[in-house]
Amino acid sequence: MPLKTGTEYIATIKALNLESHILGKNETGLTDHPLIQPSVSAVAATFDGAHSADEQTRQLFRARSPLCDAEVNRFTHLHQSPRDLMNKVIMQRRCGNLTGCCFQRCVGMDAANAVFSVSFECDRRHKTQYHERFTNYWRRIQTEDLVVDGAMTDPKGDRGKRPKDQKDPDLYLRVVKRKSGGVVVRGAKLHQTGMLNSHELIVMPTINLRPGEEDWSISFAMPTNTPGVKFIYGRQTSDTRKLEAFNMDVGNMKFGGQEVMTVFDDVFVPDDRIFLCGETDFSGLMVERFAAYHRQSYGGCKVGVGDILIGATALIAKMNGVENASHIKEKLVEMIHLNETMFSCGIACSAMGHPTAAGNFEIDMLLANVCKLNVTRFPYEMARLATDIAGGLLGTLPSAADLNDEVAGPYIRKYLAAADGVEVIDRIRVFRLIENLVAGAGSVAYLIESMHGAGPPAAQRIMIGRQGDIEGKIQKVKELIGIKKPN
Ligand code: SF4
Ligand code: FE
């Protein structure tokens, strides 16, 4: 049965023996590294969900795949209906609840759904064979229940210049050699969520390419332990707290996210792993479709983490003894309103989904972009409200080491006491969890990624402008009030 447990997943990632540069050292044994281990646990939760004791959760994390005619983990599923699209978002929210962080596995699911349909449409126009290749590849991913990282963002160099006009053409990943049986690629992909916790990676172009830019119009897959693929771990705010003896100051001790710079140093890609190579007219569609699926994703995962932030904020209000103040109640309601608005967008773009020519289902493009544009704002406002409610101790708490110190410890316990019956250590734990999300390691995914992941707000505005049908709205006005002239 193609449904691994979290423990089985960790064993297979360990067996890949990946190496990464981390804080100036080349490290191995990554699954046990204190900076990496919480992110491995977060991905493991996506496997354990499919084996949850709770029937509803278990079913949510599973889906019937026509590709391999078996039940698969939903994180490898090609969506077959609007219900599937909605279940994806609901599962992501649930996963955010379970981990309180980015669980990293959605990028591959979003890449697969985009490449599946774009390769089909490309074959139809260019008589290429990408779709069958991809389908065979993805059947194996489903059957072996693997984690795949979707790699899109090129470094881009001078943003005012096209790939071929850059001083260094490698600033956009490209084909540097064509050989019999495949191509050699060189370049880098930035911000790679969960790369070191993935078995495989799928590369896609990062912009809409034009004729003359064929070398940059490349999509392919490969195992993460392919020779020539190199990783440089991205650090997070307060990450070295994970290396401290009393790691309570991390806030979320069990789970965390991961972002990696991935370098492709003249890496060979065999033909059967290439899904786009030179067809510039399909590069933009691949970018757009992947981005839209990922913009939908944020209507689930950020909301799940938002639930944790709201819960922690309500709890600290209780611990501080202010839970009955009317302004606290109002602010909590505002947080809920913001969170559920993002969720509504995630569900709406899913419910309005439609089939692609290849047969999998795509979200409503306009609503997915509205979803993500809200995500660029609302978590920031929720973080502001959480900071407001929690109070200044959020930024000035003594360390866990001091709490355990024989001189400082008793003072901390005495002077940080709050509402009756609240343990000081529990109060500190809640403060640290909020800090993690609004200013610590968790804020990378909860705030910065909410802004820039799946494209910055300007990218969503462009799509909303394109999809918003302003001319159609003008026409409706003319019909309503009887204007006959065309202009
Ligand atoms: Fe999934 Fe959200 Fe992490 Fe992206 S940020 S990989 S959608 S959990
Ligand atoms: Fe993301």
Compile the SSE list and pairings.
Layout lengths: L5 H10 L4 E3 L2 E3 L9 H12 L6 H6 L1 E4 L4 E4 L8 H18 L6 H21 L3 H15 L3 E4 L22 E6 L2 E12 L6 E4 L14 E6 L5 E5 L25 E12 L3 E4 L5 H38 L5 H26 L2 E2 L5 E2 L2 H11 L2 H13 L2 H4 L3 H4 L4 H8 L8 H15 L4 H10 L4 H11 L2 H12 L6
Parallel strand pairs: 5-8
Antiparallel strand pairs: 1-2, 3-4, 6-7, 7-11, 8-9, 9-12, 10-11, 13-14
Helix pairs in contact: 1-2, 4-7, 4-8, 5-6, 5-7, 7-8, 7-9, 7-10, 7-14, 8-9, 8-10, 9-16, 10-14, 14-15
The structure holds iron/sulfur cluster (SF4) and fe (iii) ion.
Fe (iii) ion binds next to loops.
Description:
With 487 residues, the protein is an alpha+beta fold. It folds into two domains: 6-83 and 95-283, Butyryl-CoA Dehydrogenase, subunit A, domain 2 (Beta Barrel); 285-474, Butyryl-CoA Dehydrogenase, subunit A, domain 3 (Up-down Bundle), CATH 1.20.140. The chain is 48% helix and 15% strand. It is built from 17 helices and 14 strands. The longest helix is centred in the middle third of the chain and has 38 residues, at 283-320. It is globular. The model has no long low-confidence stretch (mean pLDDT 97). Iron/sulfur cluster (SF4) binds at residues 102-104, 106-107, 193, 297-298, 301, 445, 449, 453.
